């Protein structure tokens, strides 16, 4: 958010000077992506999504702690079935965001209003979330945190050592980036 807020005046200047064609091209790309997402939603079953989610999370946790034991695999498999589908709600939000952005860009000559709208769109997009979308996100976040807690409770000493080494490496990377 801080970066968005700091760069907002420059972004406002740039966006206010775009041509209608540039703006139309941008929104055409967004609409194509929304159509692709809608097709993905129609194509994928909840079972497929749960399997993909389980494989993805298993791979990421394995990268951090090493080979998973049976208890950890079971926790991840159970978790993947509990996650509430969010793709349609996310698509609905994307369409709403794009519609608001289109209205904002249609009145882009009013720089003060443009900057105010861009602030919401880019720094605080969660203000545009529906109650249902917010609720599902919060529920899924809770499930992720619970999974992480449960996995942590099952780590072997070897896994915990590997995790600590990985975390220390991430900390060093962040320190290097901040210099």
Oligomer: single chain
Span between N and C termini?
21 Å
Give me the number of helical elements.
Answer: 8
Q: Pairing-aware structural class of the strands and helices?
A: mainly alpha
Radius of gyration over alpha carbons?
A: 21 Å
Shape label? globular
Runs in which pLDDT lies below 50 for 5 or more consecutive residues are none
Q: What is the tally of beta strands?
A: 0
Order of helices and strands: HHHHHHHH
Written overview of the protein:
By secondary structure, this protein is mainly alpha-helical. It is 84% helix and 0% strand. It contains 8 helices and no strands. The protein has helices spanning 2-16, 20-43, 46-65, 70-82, 87-106, 111-123, 131-154, 157-178. The chain is globular. The model has no long low-confidence stretch (mean pLDDT 95).
Question: What's the layout of helices and strands?
Answer:
Layout: H1 2-16, H2 20-43, H3 46-65, H4 70-82, H5 87-106, H6 111-123, H7 131-154, H8 157-178
Helix pairs in contact: 1-6, 2-5, 3-4, 4-7, 5-6
């Amino acid at each position: 958010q801080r970066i968005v807020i700091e760069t907002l005046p420059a972004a406002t200047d740039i966006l206010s000077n775009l041509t209608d064609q540039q703006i139309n091209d941008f929104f055409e790309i967004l609409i194509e992506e929304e159509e692709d997402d809608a097709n993905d939603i129609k194509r994928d079953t909840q079972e497929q999504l749960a399997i993909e989610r389980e494989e993805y999370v298993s791979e990421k946790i394995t990268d951090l702690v090493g080979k998973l034991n049976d208890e950890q695999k079971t926790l991840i498999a159970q978790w993947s079935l509990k996650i509430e589908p969010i793709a349609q709600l996310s698509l609905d939000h994307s369409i709403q965001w794009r519609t608001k952005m289109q209205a904002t860009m249609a009145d882009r000559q009013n720089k003060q209003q443009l900057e105010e709208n861009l602030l919401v769109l880019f720094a605080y997009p969660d203000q545009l979330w529906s109650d249902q979308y917010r609720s599902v996100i919060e529920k899924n976040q809770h499930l992720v945190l619970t999974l992480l807690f449960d996995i942590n409770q099952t780590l072997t000493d070897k896994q915990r050592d590997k995790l600590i080494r990985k975390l220390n490496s991430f900390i060093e990377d962040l320190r290097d980036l901040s210099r």
